[in-house]
Amino acid sequence: MDPRVQQFMATIKAKNPGENEFHQAVQEVAESLIPFIEENPKYKHAKILERIAEPERTIIFRVPWLDDKGEVQINRGFRIEMNSAIGPYKGGLRLHPTVNLGILKFLAFEQVFKNSLTTLPMGGGKGGSDFDPKGKSDNEVMRFCQSFMSELFRHIGADTDVPAGDIGVGGREIGFLFGQYKRLKNEFTGVLTGKGIEWGGSLIRPEATGYGATYFAQEMLSTRGDKLKGKVVCISGSGNVAQYATEKVIELGGKVVTSSDSNGFIYDPKGIDAEKLNFIMELKNVRRGRIKEYAEKYGVEYLEGERPWIIKCDIAMPCATQNEINEEEAKLLVKNGCICVSEGSNMPSTIEAVGVFLNAQILYGPGKAANAGGVATSGLEMTQNSMRLPWSREEVDEKLHTIMKNIHKTCVKYGTKDSGFINYVDGANIGGFVKVANAMIAQGVV
Ligand code: NDP
Fold it and tell me: How many Cβ atoms from other residues are within 10 Å of residue 69's Cβ?
């Protein structure tokens, strides 16, 4: 490791003990930025890197609620307001038993760069709770969401901080959260994104992250005169991002052969078609069942406790969670001929796995660029809410597509090496940094 990065990371680790995912996210960014900052000393003098790695505000609160048996349950709620240099804090809420301060700080940190890359005026934030929605009734989820919002409402607002969905937070949860906010504030505003179409939501928002990651793969392939048509694609996850990545890959002529959840994955060598995808959507969004049922219904293989990366593919799209591709899996993907990785999930590849992809010089699109379509469309939802005018499906999709192309262009601008190789990690980190850093300098030491 570059000794300058090592020294910087020693301070970060001492100040934020035990927050491993946060250390990982900061290190990846520091490796790109420290050489860039050396060449641009104004950022060094203003200590931008040190400031950007410190949240502007961290809120931690108790979330008590009553389960269906009348028993009191207690969870912990968080909101990390990371950076507001270029706009109100913006970023999702995650409900998952693994949620802790370090995971949310990594996500909030990534969000700052991602939101800047979209070109829209959004700062970075993230929040959530260690509440596990799995196995809970709709009423329990509602009571939890109401209690969570009863504290969160005083910290957010359409011009202050605008949360959205993430793992465990979809349309149902956003509905319950919005209802409680409205009741407490007596205001109908665009305080959350991912809302239902009838009450302020944007068309294409549910599809946006998965569609965007697919558009990004398409852009990366085009730099090598290639396209998605005919490619075999492994996708992990079977939630919001995975479902719509699958839909767009199918539409563009690729063949998706895997789908997974936290228990295992299914391998369908004939490819998941529109009808099978409908089955997954119903299974996951309505019945809230396990992906194993796909294998039983369609008579394909189910590999319990395994991840899709052991399957030979041209393109890998991780769309489940952080650190879901390790070094060995990255090596196996490359060995099996994978030419492109487009990350739908946040930080799915370990630092070692990223090293494998960069050394092999395959097309590697990190999450903060490849999955930025979700938050970009949230930004478009905020615009529509402010104007009180909805745009058509085609209009939003076209804007999303243009934004993904522009993010790709920014990555090419900042990430192209003398050899011609495009290092999308450097491209996304430096491209996302410059706008935020300049705004921070302009706004003084705050
Ligand atoms: P969902 O909750 O809709 O789906 C998550 C999927 O990932 C489920 O299939 C889930 O399986 C699986 N999963 C979750 N945790 C784990 C784990 N620890 N190990 C293995 N599988 C796991 O979430 P989203 O689709 O919204 O989010 C997926 C990823 O995309 C996250 O990294 C998120 O941060 C990122 N992202 C999401 C955006 C959005 O707009 N929603 C925007 C940008 C990034 P199971 O059902 O078993 O839990």
Answer: 7
Mutate to test the pocket of ligand 1, among 80, 111, 167, 293 (most ligand atoms within 8 A of CB): 167
CATH class of domain segment(s) 57-187: alpha beta
Residues with CB under 6 A from ligand 1: 165-168, 170, 209, 237-242, 261-262, 319-321, 344-346, 371, 374
| Residues whose CB is less than 8 angstroms from the CB of residue 319 and which lie 6 or more positions away in sequence, other chains included | 210, 213, 235, 236, 237, 239, 241, 242, 245, 344, 345
Report d(CA 11, CA 95) in Å as an integer: 30
Residue 370's pLDDT is 98
Query: Ligand 1 centroid vs 168 CA: distance in angstroms?
Result: 7
**What residue owns the CA closest to ligand 1's atom 46?**
261
Residue pLDDT, tens place only, 70-129: 999 999 999 999 999 999 999 999 999 999 999 999 999 999 999 999 999 999 999 999
Task: Residues 208-365: name the CATH superfamily.
Answer: NAD(P)-binding Rossmann-like Domain (3.40.50.720)
Q: How far is the CA of 354 from the centre of ligand 1 (A)?
A: 20
Does the annotation mark 126 as catalytic?
Answer: yes
At residue 1, the pLDDT reads: 87
Does the pLDDT at position 412 exceed 90? yes
Give me the catalytic one of 90, 114, 126, 231: 126
